[in-house]
Every structure is written in structure tokens, then in C-alpha cells.
Amino acid sequence: MDLHVSLVGRRDLAGQIYAQLRAAILDGRLRAGEAVPPTRELARRLAISRNTVAAAYDRLAAEGFLESRVGAGTFVRETGSAARGAPAASPLRPRARWDEVAVWPRPMPGIRWDFRAGLPDAALFPYEAWRRIMAGLLCPSALGDPGAAGDPAGLPALREAIARHVGVSRSVRAAGRDILVTSGTQQALDLIVRVLLEPGDTVAVEDPGYPPVRMLLAAAGMRVRGVPVDAEGLRVDALPGDARAVYVTPSHQFPLGMPMSLPRRRALLDWARRRDVVIVEDDYDTEYRYGGRPIEPLQSLDEDGRVLYTGTFSKIMRPVLRLGFLVAPPSLHRAFRMARYVSSWHAELPAQAALARFIDEGLLARHIRRSRRAYRARHERIAGLLPELFGDRLAVVPAEAGLHLSAVLPTGTDDAAIAARALGAGVGLFPLSEFAVTGPAVPGLVFGYGAVELPAIEAGLRRLRAAAGD
């Protein structure tokens, strides 16, 4: 235990030590059973007499705060106190916009059938291979100079590995120098806002769309405008004329699931070029495609260098592995590197090195192939069961990729109430209306299948049908 005791002046030193230790015990900062430093050691650290420290310890022991154990030392006795927080009264107040930000998704206790979107199957991850790589890296020789600062853009080996991976699996045009390693897509978007936008700028997002994105934009002072989507994706004709940036998920629209058609993608690029607008392309789960032709990303169609491409490894591997990336043109390399430096310097170095080896050894590609087979079977199972169990009540939105399917309910249906009743029956899933931005909320349900095993799907959907009622 590293005990902090500070002395003020030279008066009643024993009293000062007594008061500080007593407060720490009552606050719970020193817990029952913890050892306090020997009197000789604390006296040396404070440059005072050992008798002074002993006097403070004796007083605390007499009052029942400490106890001595022969041959073991002096320990804190049980007091039943809880840790004291920061002072309750403070003149400091947050900016008003933070009152409007809430955690998403909300906690869902008691889930037995987990149909929440965006969760991968933790059981599919190759833990033994990952542990082997991490164990080989957690040694001084592998980590290199402990005094060396990490590159804000990320380890060169990882950036090169990501460039090769997305070049093969996603047709993204990028070299290692174009990659910035981030702590996920949210941080990539935060860096884009810092580097390219000003408070008050208008940012267009898909409606419905991913809640954390619009929450981040609003918290940064952006004016968020929802743009409707149809069967071909984002409606370019509905984009606001004052937009400075557009955030899209063209490969697999979140949450509805359709891809953006090639004519629509070209129209978006042309619109952005004419209006000098930046496009943020979030390609969050494109590795999991189960049919149809691969979708060419906007980034590979872009000839003007105005598309910023973001991706994450959380959907492929584990959400706890907070590693993602941003692909940017050379004109922005330095600015993004500096923005990363001043905000959080760099991502965790051992995790970066491990991911680089994981990719280079072919383990990531192997894991994607294996998990894709499992997710395809779940995708097909849900797509086949929904019409069978719900009939015309649920209209499944066609989708051939990702870790979720969406289905639309009749107009006027209270999908939030259905989701609440389902949760009471042990079924966790999101209502589609929860993803509305500024337009009318479309009622429906979003069925994630990353966290529910194939044999459990039918039972979960039947439980949902019973909870939903007529």
C-alpha cells in the first residue's frame, strides 16, 4: 500500500498523522485488513521522529481504528465506513448540452435470448492464439524502449497490416502511411470533428441511424440533420444545402441493412465534390457478407480525396478490444496525428502489436471465415423464421451482410412497448424507432444474431411472439 501523508508546518505532527489516517479509514480509502507502513518507514518518509509516528498509531489503536499483530505489523480494523466522494457542493457546472447526453444502449438486465444488434459472439474468438501472441509481447525485449513515446498514428507494423487487410477484404485504397489507429469509430469521428469542423457546422446523418454518432456530433456543437434513406440508401436529393460533412454507412446501412446502390454512391460523391463537403464512410461490418456482389466502398470510388474511411475491429473480434482505424488523404496526415497526440497520444501498444501479428499470421482472416459461416447460418435462420412466426405483421428489410436484420411493423405500432415486454420475458432487442434522428420514427424491431447461438434462435423468437401479443 502506498500511503500518502502530508504534514503542514511542524506543530502537533502526531496529531496531523492521526487525523489523516483516521479520515482515510473512515472514508474507506484504507480498508479493513490493510497494513499501514511500519513506524520506522513512515518516520523516514516524513523526516520526523519514529516516536511521533508511534504516538499517532497508539492513539488510533486505542480508539479501535488500528490493531497490531505480533510479528506481522499494524493493520486497519473494520469500521463499516464507505469511501467518501468529492465535495458535494461545487460552483462548477457542465455545459448545458451534456444534460442531453445519455448512455446508449441502456442496460438490459435479465436477458436470456440476446438479440441486441452490434454484438459479436465471444465464443467464436480464438483466445488461445491471442493469448499466445500477447504472452510473447509482454516482455521487455518485445516492447522495446520503455521511455520511447508511441507514434500517435499507431505502430507502423499495425498500420501496414491494416492497409493490407482492408485492401484485400474491402477494396480500400490505402498504404500504411494513410492509416491512423484509433480507439474505435467513435474516436475517429471525434478526431474528424476536431480537425475539419467548427462548432455550429451542419452535419448530415442517415435517418434512422446510429445514436452514438449523433450524440457525439451534438456534444461537439454540430447541427445534426437527419436525411431519410430508402431502398437504395441515403437520399442524396434530401441532403441539406448547408452541410459541411455527411456521415454514411453505405455498405450496410445501420440499422435497416440495405447497401447504397452504385448510382446513389456516385451521386453522393458528385454532390460532395460540387459543394466541397467531407464524407465520413463508416464500414463497420462489411467482412460479414453472405450473398450478392461485394459493395465497392465510397473510398475506392473517390477521385478527389474527400472520403474519410473508418473501420473497427470490435465487431470482428471483441468489443473490449478498442481498436479501429481511420483512412485519410495525405493532406490531413499531420493534422490527424497531432489531434490524436493532444487528445490521447496513442492506443495501447501491446494490443497494437498483438493485432499486427494476428493479421500477419493469417489468424484474423481465418477467424473471419469461421465466424462468417456461423453468422450466415444465424442470419438465414432468423430471416426464415420471422415470416413464419409473425406473418405479415413484420416486414423483413432485405439485407445480405452484417450481424443484424431489421423488420418493420405496421404504422402506429408501439415498438418500444413490444421491446419492453420482450425484455420482461428474457428477450433483449432494440426497437427500430430508437434510431430515428429528426424524421418520423418508423416502428420495427432490430434482430442482432451475433450474441445468440443458432439452437436458441427459434425459442427466443417464439418467446418474443408470445410477449408481443396480437
Architecture blueprint of SSEs:
Elements: H1 13-27, H2 39-46, H3 50-62, E1 66-69, E2 73-76, E3 113-114, H4 127-137, H5 140-143, H6 156-169, E4 179-182, H7 185-196, E5 202-207, H8 211-219, E6 223-230, E7 233-234, E8 243-248, H9 262-275, E9 278-282, H10 298-301, E10 307-312, E11 324-327, H11 333-344, H12 349-360, H13 363-390, E12 395-396, E13 404-408, H14 415-424, E14 427-428, E15 430-431, E16 444-448, H15 454-468
Helix pairs in contact: 1-3, 2-3, 4-12, 6-12, 7-8, 7-11, 13-15, 14-15
Explain what you see.
It is a single chain. With 470 residues, the chain is an alpha/beta fold. The protein folds into 3 domains: 13-76, Orthogonal Bundle (Arc Repressor Mutant, subunit A); 113-120 and 366-468, Alpha-Beta Complex (Aspartate Aminotransferase, domain 1); 148-361, 3-Layer(aba) Sandwich (Aspartate Aminotransferase, domain 2), CATH 3.40.640. It is built from 15 helices and 16 strands. It has helices at residues 13-27, 39-46, 50-62, 127-137, 140-143, 156-169, 185-196, 211-219, 262-275, 298-301, 333-344, 349-360, 363-390, 415-424, 454-468, and strands spanning 66-69, 73-76, 113-114, 179-182, 202-207, 223-230, 233-234, 243-248, 278-282, 307-312, 324-327, 395-396, 404-408, 427-428, 430-431, 444-448. The strands form 4 sheets. The protein has an 8-stranded mixed beta sheet with strand order 4-11-10-9-8-5-6-7, with helices on both faces. Helix 4 packs across helix 12 and helix 7 (185-196) crosses helix 11.
